[in-house]
Design goal:
mainly beta; about 300 residues; Neuraminidase; five-stranded antiparallel β-sheet; 27 strands
Length: about 300
């Protein structure tokens, strides 16, 4: 039987005959962020130089921009499964391969692992990563066949397919979203009809079909939870404004929340505590902008995060 990776290689060769299908995937702008502790945030971007850049927040100040030497064509995606730990994923070599690097504060102080690891596969989108603790990571992206594909980083297995919304609706090349909540995995993607769909899994048993929401999107999405009851969703609408919505929780009966802005990328969100959001996105000036929320003061104004030009 042909291996899954070999199938992906054949699909890539087929789709590369029509380069317009690959253009969006190679140059899709994506921001990655995660919190690895109270008031701790790390934000990752790909610069116009195709180098991965990051900055960190320590509760009072933002660090200067720093770089991790690597060529990236899409991404980054980032998550944290413990204090001082960051796992960063990008796509390189014309989006054919997913690459992974680790930041670990416990390794003789703050330190990056020496080399990027390759996780194979060729994807039509940026990636989403979710964790359920202690080194357990799952990675998802849209394949060259417009279906959702995943891999468990902690298990010895290859990429596997969990399908698409229906025979008439496939996934776009926008980065998907993934999150663990109450021992259940949720995977999200933007359908070709521009609606948001999700599929969930518990004890290795997936829902029988994708669930369509009423959210109409113009980008990929960012997902987060701060209470293990509600999944909060952030995405760009057709006016390039940031929209906040949610599913599953009691507060989700409210209408979606427009946070305005003028964003041109898939947003990213992190939560370092209950009642706190930090959302990041690329704007029309090709720089990174930030907006935050806390329960005492509500939403802040948008703030520009320096002059670094993003891909």
């Amino acid at each position: 039987m042909m291996k899954i990776y070999e199938k992906f290689k054949m699909l890539h060769l087929l789709f590369s005959l029509c380069s317009v299908h690959l253009t969006h995937a190679l140059y899709e702008s994506q921001v990655g962020s995660a919190s690895w502790g109270y008031q701790q945030i790390a934000v990752f971007v790909t610069g116009a130089d195709h180098v991965v850049w990051y900055l960190q927040y320590d509760g009072s100040l933002w660090s200067p921009w720093k770089q991790i030497a690597s060529y990236a064509s899409s991404g980054p995606a980032v998550c944290s499964w413990g204090w001082g730990r960051l796992d960063v994923f990008v796509q390189a070599d014309d989006a054919l391969y997913v690459r992974h690097i680790v930041y670990d504060y416990s390794l003789s102080g703050a330190a990056w692992w020496n080399a990027w690891e390759s996780w194979g596969c060729c994807l039509y989108s940026g990636v989403a990563v979710a964790t359920y603790g202690n080194g357990n990571l799952v990675l998802y992206g849209i394949g060259m066949d417009y279906q959702m594909w995943g891999q468990s980083i902690s298990a010895i297995q290859g990429w596997y397919c969990i399908g698409r919304p229906s025979t008439n609706v496939f996934f776009t090349s926008d980065p998907p979203g993934a999150i663990w909540m109450l021992q259940r995995l949720y995977v999200f993607g933007r359908g070709s009809d521009n609606y948001l769909y999700y599929l969930s899994c518990e004890n290795n048993i997936w829902d029988p079909q994708w669930t369509q929401t009423d959210m109409v999107m113009n980008s990929g999405l960012a997902v987060v939870t701060w209470d293990s009851m509600t999944i909060h969703i952030f995405y760009r609408d057709i006016n390039n404004e940031l929209i906040h919505n949610c599913i599953l929780g009691q507060m989700c009966g409210n209408a979606s929340e427009n946070l305005h802005g003028n964003i041109t990328s898939t947003p990213s969100v992190s939560a370092w505590g209950y009642g706190r959001f930090d959302v990041f996105a690329k704007w029309t000036d090709n720089c990174l902008w930030w907006i935050s929320y806390d329960q005492c003061n509500g939403w802040s104004q948008w703030q520009k995060m320096g002059e670094l030009v993003l891909l």
